[in-house]
Amino acid sequence: NAQVVTTTLNTYEAKTTISKHIYGHFAExxxxxxxDGFWVDEKMDVKxxxxxxxxxxxxxxKIKIPxxxxxxxxxxxxxxWRDGIGKPADRPKMVNTNWGGVSEDNSFGTHEFxxxxxxxxxxxxxxxxxxxxxxxxxxKWVEYLNSPAQSTMTELRRQNGRQQPWKVxxxxxxxxxxxxxxxxxxxxxxxxxxxxxxxxxNYPGAPLKKIASGANSDDYRWTEVLMKNIPRNQMWxxxxxxxxxxxxxxxxxxxxxxxxxEQEYFKTMKNCLHMEELVQxxxxxxxKYDKEKRVALVVDEWGIWTDVEPGTNPGFLYQQNSLRDALxxxxxxxxxxxxxxxxxxxxxxxxxxxxQSIVLTKGKEMLLTPTYHVFDLFMGHMDAKxxxxxxxTPDYTNGNEKIPAVNASASLDSNGKMHxxxxxxxxxxxxxxxxxxxxxxYKKVNGRILTSRSFTDINTFDNKNKVIPAAFNGAxxxxxxxxxxxxxxxxxxxxxx
Length: 497
Ligand code: AHR
Fold this sequence. Notes:
Elements: E1 3-10, E2 24-26, E3 48-49, E4 52-53, H1 54-62, E5 67-70, E6 94-96, E7 102-104, H2 110-120, E8 123-128, H3 135-146, H4 152-159, E9 170-173, H5 186-199, E10 209-216, H6 220-229, E11 237-244, H7 262-289, E12 296-304, H8 323-338, E13 343-349, E14 359-362, E15 365-368, H9 370-377, E16 385-386, E17 395-398, E18 401-404, E19 406-412, E20 418-424, E21 431-438, E22 445-451, E23 470-471, E24 475-478, E25 481-486, E26 490-496
Parallel strand pairs: 1-21, 2-5, 2-13, 5-8, 8-9, 9-10, 10-11, 11-12, 12-13
Antiparallel strand pairs: 3-4, 6-7, 14-15, 16-19, 17-18, 19-20, 20-26, 21-25, 22-23, 22-26, 24-25
Helix pairs in contact: 3-4, 5-6, 6-7, 7-8, 8-9
The site of alpha-L-arabinofuranose has 10 residues, from loops.
Family: Belongs to the glycosyl hydrolase 51 family.
Domain Alpha-L-arabinofuranosidase C-terminal: 300-490
Subunit structure: Homohexamer; trimer of dimers.
């Protein structure tokens, strides 16, 4: 017997835009994300532009990734951009101290990243170096990227083959400044932020959206100090980083990406749902200082972080991706959509071969993970208007604990179509939803579903299509009502016309 949820969707209530930038991604110089992910050996026999792998580009273009964050992460605060321009053979090598101590040859630098963004038709989001870089270094990088005038920096850019400024908009001022980005106090960082941000200039036609390095998880004091000490007009956004750890522990095992039982699955989903509380509480602090919600909460690192795949370099953070990851992605994106008044940008960590990837590669082979397919199912929400959806969800219980079994979000796009995305986390029960539709009327319903027998199911290089979307026939539309039967362990996307 399916449990029943009743709720209403009223198109007259559609007001807040769900920024497409919530669906952003992240590519760090870490493990096999850039090198051997996006950027491959000249001799590799795959379709390429230069050394950029085009099958990966095509896959990401299909889901219209709106922005790509680069070059880190922790790497950003040790990255010196001038090492990554000019003739590749002349570029200095460095040690990637954060990630495996491997040698970084700087063959992928500013020009290559912006070429990649051009191919992807996505907006670059560059993280500048505050931890070990100077104000001058950051100022000159912005000048090199964005100035149309004559100067030593823009001459250098032209000599390196780029005439016109790129007009990069999203600009991170440091990363995790409370940790790998310099182990600072929020007071010290806020002062540094103002100094670095002052000289990261706005050039003609290229105003920067400057983003301050925000809190780690529930460090609410960090957000409070930044909001208090940095004037609203000096910062477009402030970040939040939160990773879902299956065991909840940073020390010791984080849990396996593929071998886990229901208890561990339940615990992971509970940890994932903590994002709701984090967004609410950080937003409440921001509201105190910024009632008009001018400053964005930018969740520019999120996703599941497990132990690495056995036999792989522990510093490379390579992990498989299961149906559980898809349920985490769907749940988290629903949370962000429902807080679209404050969350205006987010970046899943990380795009290829690192943490909760959407693409995995192995030599010439490439596969799309279950998480990739969730981004596909959620595409209709990008820049659509949020239709608030309040309901009481049944519980998913495990032992003495319970968590909400269902989460959802809805939006109205500019063509008048309604998009609803729903996740049923419960490993055992299907759940029915009876939704009354107010406002605009609809005649036709289309749906797609991502599900599989077990939460541990994955796509492998031998079976790339184990967890892929299928047509969903569990939704029926009547006069002013929509009935949905949401299967256990599923992500469903519904479109009403
Ligand atoms: O995404 C991996 C790492 O996690 C990033 O480099 C860092 O910012 C965070 O701690």
